[in-house]
UniProtKB/TrEMBL annotation, chains A, B:
<dbReference type="InterPro" id="IPR056798">
    <property type="entry name" value="ADH_Fe_C"/>
</dbReference>
<dbReference type="InterPro" id="IPR044731">
    <property type="entry name" value="BDH-like"/>
</dbReference>
<keyword id="KW-0560">Oxidoreductase</keyword>
<feature type="domain" description="Alcohol dehydrogenase iron-type/glycerol dehydrogenase GldA">
    <location>
        <begin position="9"/>
        <end position="175"/>
    </location>
</feature>
<dbReference type="GO" id="GO:1990362">
    <property type="term" value="F:butanol dehydrogenase (NAD+) activity"/>
</dbReference>
<comment type="similarity">
    <text>Belongs to the iron-containing alcohol dehydrogenase family.</text>
</comment>
<feature type="domain" description="Fe-containing alcohol dehydrogenase-like C-terminal">
    <location>
        <begin position="187"/>
        <end position="354"/>
    </location>
</feature>
<dbReference type="GO" id="GO:0008106">
    <property type="term" value="F:alcohol dehydrogenase (NADP+) activity"/>
</dbReference>
<dbReference type="GO" id="GO:0005829">
    <property type="term" value="C:cytosol"/>
</dbReference>
<dbReference type="GO" id="GO:0046872">
    <property type="term" value="F:metal ion binding"/>
</dbReference>
<dbReference type="InterPro" id="IPR001670">
    <property type="entry name" value="ADH_Fe/GldA"/>
</dbReference>
<protein>
    <submittedName>
        <fullName>Iron-containing alcohol dehydrogenase</fullName>
    </submittedName>
</protein>
<dbReference type="Pfam" id="PF25137">
    <property type="entry name" value="ADH_Fe_C"/>
</dbReference>
<dbReference type="Pfam" id="PF00465">
    <property type="entry name" value="Fe-ADH"/>
</dbReference>
<dbReference type="GO" id="GO:1990002">
    <property type="term" value="F:methylglyoxal reductase (NADPH) (acetol producing) activity"/>
</dbReference>
<dbReference type="InterPro" id="IPR018211">
    <property type="entry name" value="ADH_Fe_CS"/>
</dbReference>
Length: 385, 385
């Protein structure tokens, strides 16, 4: 096990009928900005519930934060925060809204051009407004971590940043708020949480028994709950497991003390930036191909993954690895999520376009061994055609 | 899954050579009291390392906190804290030292007779001094939770208390600090962490897939690492897994959103108070007997435990349950920890003595169903003879 620090101060308020707790969670004197995405927050009644819980507080609202939240949109929120001297940000939505809120929280107090925050990965954040969240879409884990991703439309750049100042003070997780989500979003959320777990698990062994068992438990849970999660929108228990699993997949716990990969994410980000493919869907495109190309350096963990997660225990090592990768691909496809670029009409030209973006963003040494250079990224993308 | 709140603000600093981090973790102006137990903290050099890390800070020391820390001892520390106006408590030791430090942290600022804190389970704590810990004995999880147990020698009362103000600000976990521990302490630690996990897992199902998988992962890890943990004191990787597993077994995570038992602990506390048997050893006495007596109400989870933790999948339900309980007993006995009261020379008289203590302390409705009354506690204790 590697040395590590783990400190996650976010308070989780989990369960049905918990939105009303906002009244105790946000200071009575706070000047609140509610940030949200599209019309669904209003339509489902969640915004009304939030407004009611905030009572007599001074509240403003900022809607229209898009999937893959853009610098261009978020800077309008930053101007509002500054103009109105707002001092508490409440994100109501999924990972995009929460990520965008994190950018606003840091940018509003940043002394300089806020895009530098993304360019420097958040290392230059010195202060941030406090954030709370009401999660309506389980997937990214942003509700209990300090990271975010922001996109600059003008340059098609999608960059991650993180800083301990960006942990939400609290996150309200009410699984019943997911009942109205389209099945596609649930499928995306399952894949997103699955790949988050894989990025921190499927590397090389460092005798971190607990982290391995926890990661395997998350993967097994996602596989178990996937069918009812998609088929039965109002199955509270299933949605509760999905929500808590997605949070635990990226709250720092399973990644503490172990090597991490994240190459699938970095390559996937470019696919989203270039072709506007949903984040989770880009992960499903890249991961199976990456596991195949990296099967030698990931051999020991791939065999463990095959045995413990998929119960694949017979055949040669390479047969077991191939079967585990096929099971992974089948899991994604079974959720209606393609694992081939051709499903999006993309071919060899797209491979080269992604490589140019990776080069432009300095993504030339990815993965837990930093051995995924542009040549290897090309092999991975070609394997995903 | 039940509704829950999870908020654990303790910062974990984990790994070899991490004691030096104290200099950044404790405010430079702090007036520190180092609290510790016996002579080993000095002999192993840990105290010297701690003193060096604290540099020029004003530091006082209070040694002699005993296993099952006593009110009588701790009140002397309280007097020292008050007289010297100390404002930061640093526990260097295992669960007893940390528990004792939590009592001192609350008692020093308590307006009234501090024993009331134990009598009211901590609900009357309004403020507490900040605490940090340097963990030297993995077992109780006190380094990352808000609970503690304190004993009043005069009345043989051993009472738990908890309050969110008692989370350590940080805990330094250096697995190499455990190399010098006697094998008996390691065996105790393994059993302690195992039973902590069982108390939050082996109740009845509430469709909490993640919590179940995490608990099973902790149990599997403890079973895997037990032989090398005892046999090879300086096996860093094994000790690292033991340390992190014991912390995760009782930091609120696996218990969030699920029913909890704790009857084994409550009965065990009385055995410690009356006969001075090590805490973990009392758990090994009570648990197998309790599982047998409660096999009907715990049936579904006992079967899951049998299958997933012990790979017991054939035979009738009752055969599988019996085999799982036998495996549990065998695991404890294999660590040199008895599971029968007779091993301590205790017989039917002890059963009645424990029952009188349970009655005196109001422990007449224990377990996840509150159905362990004195009659059932008698059956459990008789089954442990």
């Amino acid at each position: 096990m590697k040395n590590f620090e783990f400190h996650n101060p976010t308070r989780i308020v989990f369960g049905a009928e918990t939105v009303g707790r906002l009244d105790q969670l946000i200071p009575a004197q706070a000047r609140v900005l509610i940030l949200y995405g599209g019309a669904s927050a209003e339509k489902t009644g969640t915004l009304a519930e939030v407004r009611q819980a905030l009572g007599q507080r001074s509240v403003q609202e900022f809607g229209g934060i898009e999937p893959n939240p853009s610098y261009e949109t978020l800077m309008r929120a930053v101007q509002l925060v500054r103009a109105e001297q707002l001092d508490f940000l409440l994100a109501v939505g999924g990972g995009s809204v929460i990520d965008g809120t994190k950018f606003v929280a840091a940018a509003a107090l940043y002394d300089g051009e806020p895009w530098e925050i993304a360019e420097q990965g958040g290392a230059n954040i010195r202060q941030a407004l406090p954030i709370g969240t009401v999660l309506t879409l389980p997937a990214t884990g942003s509700e209990m971590n300090s990271g975010a991703v922001v996109t600059r439309k003008a340059t098609q750049a999608k960059l991650p940043f993180r800083n301990a100042l960006l942990y939400p003070r609290f996150s309200v997780l009410d699984p019943s708020k997911t009942f109205t989500l389209p099945a596609k979003q649930i499928a995306n959320g399952l894949v997103d949480a699955y790949v988050h777990t894989i990025e921190q698990y499927l590397t090389y062994p460092v005798q971190a028994h607990v982290q391995d068992r926890f990661a395997e438990g998350l993967l097994q849970t996602l596989i178990e709950i996937a069918p009812p999660a998609v088929a039965t929108p109002d199955d509270y228990a299933t949605r509760a497991n999905l929500m808590w699993t997605a949070t635990l997949a990226l709250n720092g716990l399973i990644g503490a003390g172990v090597p991490q990969d994240w190459a699938t994410h970095m390559i996937g980000h470019e696919l989203t930036a270039l072709y506007d493919i949903d984040h989770a869907r880009t992960l499903a495109l890249v991961l199976p191909a990456l596991l195949d190309v990296q099967r030698d350096s990931k051999r020991a963990k791939l065999l463990q993954y095959a045995a413990r997660v998929w119960d694949i225990r017979s055949g040669s090592e390479d047969e077991r690895i191939t079967a585990a990768i096929a099971s992974t691909r089948h899991f994604f496809e079974g959720l209606g999520i393609p694992t081939r670029l051709s499903a999006y009409g993309l071919g060899p030209d797209a491979v080269e376009a992604v490589l140019r973006q990776l080069q432009a963003h300095g993504m030339t040494a990815l993965g837990e061994h930093r051995d995924i250079d542009l040549a290897r990224s090309r092999r991975i993308l070609q394997a995903a055609l």
